[in-house]
Design goal:
5 helices, 14% helix, globular, 19 strands
Length: 348
């Protein structure tokens, strides 16, 4: 009798296991399925009020969004835009620089922040094109006024080239930017350090591919991070030349990813906002956004901290769905009806 009961229990357990297996999807990949956000953006959850051409700051804050740059407010009509002028220089002799292949870095562009009216004070970051009009970068690239002690006057994206001081590049104005509402520059730099840039006229970026980003449904295991790599126009390239290559995983979390340099080479100051790539089935996919580089260490030991893209993917999709409607950016700063236009003399 006991033998019969044991056999019966074993048969029942095997049947249950079979049913569970049938209901459980097989692990087709240990790395997230990826797709461009443009294929997965839903309709905005909050309707634009009747007669309004933008959302209120309170509405944006309720969705963890805040406008952190608005071209229409910052620039008066007719003001000369120093940000659109490029300093074209003679290229270096052959062999002076080792340039990465831009084809390995789809979506990569350079972000420049003007902090003076004449454009002589600029900060440098990277960004990635993740949709037709949207580019992803780090919030501190826009909000950080600690360097030079000045806020950002203007934002421009530079079409990619191994030498951004060549006559092949085009500076493109940023229409507006959204930062994560809970990011604070006085906190650890990787906390919610994510931002989106909206560009109305993307004609100059026709050759810049929209890059795929990591999804959130599955987790990525440490042992499968063998092809991480990054590039940018930071200190490694004198903010002019593209430099990049592989990096090694040092710590992998659900929201933060830390990398170490390989042979002393890796991202540096000025590469913030640049995308961290991996390869899935031979195709580049963005896993992270550079939030911080350990500049307190010797150069060869500087680790880099990235915001894990999959942890903010819902935020990215919400922002893009909400703030682009009928071909317009509708999350600009609120303007009081009594506010006088900004004059060119006041623009500084």
């Amino acid at each position: 009798m006991r033998v019969f009961l044991v056999l019966l229990l074993l048969i029942a357990a095997a049947a249950a296991a079979g049913i569970y297996a049938a209901r459980t999807e097989p692990t087709s990949s240990i790395i997230d399925t990826v797709l461009a956000p443009t294929n997965d953006v839903m309709a905005p959850a909050v309707a634009l009020p009747d007669g309004a051409d933008r959302y209120s700051a309170a509405t944006l804050a309720s969705l963890d969004l805040r406008t952190c740059f608005d071209e229409t407010v910052a620039f008066p009509d007719g003001a000369e835009r120093a940000s659109l002028q490029r300093d074209v220089r003679t290229p270096p002799p052959n062999g002076a620089w080792r340039f990465p292949d831009l084809a390995d870095y789809p979506g990569l562009v350079k972000l420049e922040q003007l902090k003076s009216e004449l454009g002589t004070q600029r900060e440098h970051c990277g960004a990635a094109r993740i949709s037709e009009h949207w580019f992803m970068t780090a919030s501190h690239c826009i909000l950080d006024a600690s360097v030079m002690g000045a806020p950002v006057i203007d934002l421009v994206l530079i079409t990619p080239d191994v030498d951004v001081n060549s006559d092949r590049v085009s500076p493109v104005p940023v229409t507006g930017a959204l930062c994560h509402h809970d990011f604070g520059i006085d906190r650890l730099r990787f906390t919610n350090d994510i931002a989106l840039l909206y560009v109305a006229d993307t004609t100059p970026f026709e050759a810049v591919e929209i890059v795929k980003i990591e999804r959130s449904e599955m987790s990525l295991r440490r042992g499968d991070l063998s092809e991480l790599y990054i590039a940018g126009w930071g200190n490694n390239g004198n903010s002019r030349f593209l430099q990049g290559g592989p990096v090694a995983p040092e710590r992998v979390g659900s929201s933060v990813l830390v990398t170490a340099r390989i042979d002393g080479r890796g991202p540096d100051v000025g590469d913030s906002g640049s995308p961290l790539y991996t390869r899935i089935d031979g195709e580049p996919v963005v896993m992270g956004v550079l939030a911080s580089v350990r500049s307190d260490r010797p150069v060869e030991q500087r680790s880099a901290i990235f915001v894990r893209v999959k942890s903010v993917r819902d935020w990215l999709q919400t922002a893009m769905a909400l703030c682009e409607q009928d071909g317009a950016f509708v999350c600009g700063k609120e303007i009081a009806t009594t506010q006088a236009p900004i004059s060119a003399a006041e623009w500084i």
